[in-house]
TrEMBL record:
The record marks 195 as: Important for enzyme activity. Keywords: Hydrolase, Protease, Thiol protease, Ubl conjugation pathway. This is Ubiquitin carboxyl-terminal hydrolase. One of its GO terms (biological process) is ubiquitin-dependent protein catabolic process. It catalyses: Thiol-dependent hydrolysis of ester, thioester, amide, peptide and isopeptide bonds formed by the C-terminal Gly of ubiquitin (a 76-residue protein attached to proteins as an intracellular targeting signal). Coiled coil: none annotated. The active site is at 105 (nucleophile), 179 (proton donor).
Length: 250
């Protein structure tokens, strides 16, 4: 199974991003996020001593995992009860992007992280990201997906970032089984699961004003809920990684 099964094989493909916070930070900084925000590894969601190393507040989490039969069946089951998302405009609690570029789930995850909540407020005016989000805001999901598909600035920044990292990058046409899902705190104070392969944004629950994306409640509503579903489906030792978008301290 690959992360682009819902994107036609005739669609263009990107070289997959390495699951590396330095690579991710490089890409979002190049697009227009200030250097005061960046991604950091989260080495544990249960050990307070390790969680203490993660800069707070956490504006978004990116969960990276191998696509499994459990994820597929859970996704299909939940989506079967939902209608296709049609939201647009400034009243949306979150901005959601449908994935139509093959092997671009990392890019879509990053965009979901930086396009919403507090991070969105810090996007540099006049940057490529600022222009992209302003253009995307009034559009419906199909036109938003087309906007990303046709964006030369996005494609160029992604290609530059894909060359970085500690391992040799796969080819754009390779089958890659890793998938990225973002958990963000929306402007409505709720935790949202944002996955470009779903029918739309998924609201997971209300957070208090002082609860960020890495708070106990957010973890229970998001990442831990996801891992519990995997465990119940026969994957108690799922290989996953997690990064947090938050402040950068020199």
């Amino acid at each position: 199974m690959t992360d682009h099964v819902d994107a036609p094989e005739t669609n263009k493909a990107f070289v997959p991003l390495e699951n590396n916070p330095e690579v991710m930070s490089h890409l979002v900084h190049q697009l227009g996020l200030p250097p005061t925000l960046g991604f950091t590894d989260v080495y544990s969601i249960d050990e307070p001593d390790l969680l203490a190393f993660v800069p707070r507040p956490s504006h978004a989490l990116l969960l990276v995992f191998p696509v499994s039969k459990t994820y597929e069946s859970s996704r299909v089951s939940e989506d079967s009860k939902l209608t296709d998302y049609t939201g647009s405009g400034p009243s949306e609690p979150v901005m959601w992007f449908k994935q139509t570029i093959r092997n671009a789930c990392g890019l879509i995850g990053l965009l979901h992280a930086v396009s919403n909540g507090e991070a969105r407020k810090q996007v540099l005016p006049g940057s490529d990201l600022d222009g992209l989000l302003r253009e995307a805001e009034p559009l419906g999901p199909v036109d938003r997906a087309n906007l990303l598909y046709e964006s030369k600035a996005l494609e160029s920044a992604h290609a530059d970032a894909a060359k970085l990292g500690d391992t040799t990058a796969p080819q754009a046409e390779d089958s890659v089984d890793l998938h990225f899902v973002a958990f963000v705190k929306g402007v409505d104070g709720r935790l949202w699961e944002l996955d470009g392969r779903r029918k739309g944004p998924l609201e997971r629950g209300k957070l208090e004003e002082d609860e960020d994306a890495l708070s106990e409640k957010a973890l229970n509503l998001g990442v831990r809920r996801f891992l519990k579903t995997e465990a119940q489906g026969g994957n108690p030792d799922l290989r996953f990684s997690l990064v947090s978008l938050g402040p950068v301290f020199d």
